[in-house]
Amino acid sequence: MRRPGWLTALVLAVTLMTAGMAEPAEAAGEACATAGSNFASQTIAESTATLRMGCARDAGSLRPLASSDTDMVAAIDFNTAQRPDAWQRQMSQMVDAVRADKDKGLTLSESFDLQAQKNSVDFYDRQSDARFDGSIQVVGDSLVIVIPAGEVNASANWWQKMIAIAVGYAVWAVAYQVCELSFGPAAPFAIPICSAISSGLAGLTGDLMNSYFDGRSLGDADVWKEAIAVFVASALVGLGSAARESLNAWAAKGIAWVVEAVQKTARNLSTRLGSWGSPMQYVSSLLTDGFAQGLRSAIERAFQGGRATAWPSTIRLMVVGDSISQGHEGDYTWRYRLWQWFQENNISVDFVGPYHGTFTPDQPSPPKPPLFVGEKPADQGIRVDGGYAAGVAFDSDHYAHWGRQAAQIKDDIRRQVETYQPDLVLLAAGFNDMGWFVSDENGTLDSVETIIDQARAARPGVDFAVATVPQRSKIGGRDDLITKTDNFNRLLANAAPRWSKSISQVEVVDWQKKYSCAPAACPAAYDGLHPNAFGEYQLAIAFEQTLHDRYGLGRGPIPFPPENLPVRPTPVPTGLKAESSPQGVTVTWNPVYGAFGYDVRSRIAGQTTWGEGRVNSNRTDTTWTVDGIQWEYQVRTVGGENVKGPWSGTVSAVAHPKTAPPPRIVASRPIGQDGIELEIAPPDYPTIIDRYEVILFDKDTPGAWLTGTGFRGNRVQIYGLNPGHRYLVAAATWNAAGGGLPGLARPVMAGGGVPAAPTGLRVTTVDPTTVELDWNGAKSAAGYRLWVSNIKDGGTTPPEADENIIEGTHYGVGFLFPGVWNYEFCVTAVNGSLESGKSNCVIPPHLDGSAPTNPGGSALNLSPSARTAGSDTVDIGSLITLRNPDGTGSPVAVGAGVNGGDR
What we know:
The protein is an alpha+beta fold and 903 residues long. Helix content is 30%, strand content 21%.
């Protein structure tokens, strides 16, 4: 079945007849009194549809659909004899589409106008003010539209714009039907080709009508046939060579029939419109045999890479995007490689935009206090003063910034295009939207479409080269990003031809395929995403390919990157020093120009093993340390994942922190399906406290980072966690010196309840004083506690358990003197302060094989209890292993980002 587009055209043509009923100066009620409303049928498409139009009082059986006698009613009666089911299906689809728009808040006319804008060639920037509301429904073989009398505007301009919309869609219907007939039955490419041809002609007609009514020049036939040809070529480019060959073959015979049919329609409409028919007379005179032949030739040229208009002598070009396009201090950038290509091809270009430089590195600063719930990080501002690689000098103006999202660009692109008036926009955005949960692939595509629409609003003739989003090396727990990226790129490839217009093409640049970066490996990037010297060439070559193939620029892209690529300098940092500071120890050094970061390794003096991490600036701070410990450090420069300089010499300092001790942990517990609550008390000795920090770590998300949230008082609730995931929970105290040592709370499973008791506890004797315990896991368990009772000499001691939380279901116990057979073991499951009853209890057998009695019997199975954790027993080793040397953990929390998140 055919798409319902031309049915939409016929429905919209009703507004033409509506306009014929009333003089502009009259209100709807007066029109009913004077316009001769007899509801007689009028043909609007031969052998296809007729129209009955008039006031509700004359609508006969359709009168009950209106609210008053002066409402306007239109019934489009279709000839459904040949395909009754198909017509009913199309009419229902039409009604459903309009109602869906109305559910979004659009009026009836706005829904119609939305369809008109999608078909417009847009030589003329449509600003329709024809606004009315009403209803639409199927009655038998008819579509019935009711427009309340109060919705009709009396201004001439209102009627004129409504006529322009209707006429354009009437032309669409005629062109589509004649085009299909000229193809013959079951032609495989009839639908897309006829859709493109008819849309182009409808757009031409609607734009001419609007331009005429606004007193603008109508242009000339050569301009318009070129515009339609490029519109058609853009609409069909995604279908490949087969559709192209079919179009060219059909154009030789069928295009003249379509142009002739539209010419006759224009003459007919000109007669019906009376004094408002002047633009239709022009359309009729335009659509001659010469126009048809010229359109055929223009289509052939368009498929050969031609363009509707010639490029200016100097092309104004704006690069729009995120960090991949801005680049980091010391990069050459793909923008520079593209600029070199323009120079080598003797193409005069003027790169335009508000920025000039690369992204400046982070500035050294002490660890910052954690943000409170709902508090946003301080805006770091626009960081565009970074320099380029040594020896690089070029026209570097651009509109790209680290972390920029398509969702952000869409709100500012119109202002930028108005200011800089680019001829060509090179757009590369979308990773940050999908990578940091701003939107999914569909929302990201909507943002890209809005960017294009807003840019066209500022400069209707601007062209676009839009890059796909490259894959990056896999991030643990982010399989969704891989899928979203693939889906977005597929959606973009399908959408770009629809977005293309005659004077504003949209072409796709295939970064995903041209850039050597994938979840398994990413040799083109220095960090799994951002381009190294090799990747910069690849990204530029992808744009060169599209600019040559689709826009006819240059002699072709360079075939491949040069073999001798520049190596990023990674000298040993100078000026390295370590000093005692209020938070512990602070280490600084002189920044290295162009460094992507620094590896820092540290250890307590006298130890042999180093702990290593990455920092982004020329400073690191050791916090969470005890007074009097001497720390040693070494630093090296990072120029990429596999490009690192030599280690520096060793510097050391003794920690004398002035931070406060951790708060006392009262309780931790799950709340709701995605929350955790932590309850604390102040430290034992008086100190001035600025805030507390709750620290969480998702144990069940690979690659997760520590997150810290500030709070005041004795209780905090954190939501938005992953249901069913186990979280490490800790709390630290912040005073003027910084953040102190954290205290561990019991781990919590978000969304869980009181855990079930473990089952199947088993004991294995390793030697006379050592056992290994195994048990079956329990539902809602975030961890387990081991209960031990001494049963020596037939007596019992109360079972005891400390706050050591066991993560798995296997645990070894040693130093059980005088022998393992003197002890009984039980296990409970915990979910924060919620605790299960005890498991079955086991006693290891005596070495002689005898089994001791269990005097306690079932009395050891106590009821669940909530217990508190003593801060003096906390082992923070598991937390320290998750931190970077600067005490901040990994750079950003899962789902958040530094300056937008793509670093």
